[in-house]
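Worked problem 6 (solution included).
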Amino acid sequence: MKEIDIIPIARKKLDRRGISEDWIRETIVSPSQIVDGYGGRKVAHRKYMVGGKEYLLRVVYEEKDRNVVLSAYLTSQINRYWKEEKDED
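Solution. The predicted structure is:
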């Protein structure tokens, strides 16, 4: 498994947003879904319950020799970002 690095500005934002590094690691290692981001970046998705409400954690990272986390945030707009699998008929 690749190591995970969190850039300093992302670490500050995680602290401010109350997102634990454990959640970041869990989301990258065992995502519920990975979608393509801009510029070849990946966005790992995983759902969490916070205060009795379901949120989607989106972790934006680059795959290099290590996974480099650029940003992460929780959103209640799950349907906006969740990609349903398409049936191939």
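Discussion: The helical segments are 8-17, 21-29, 78-81.
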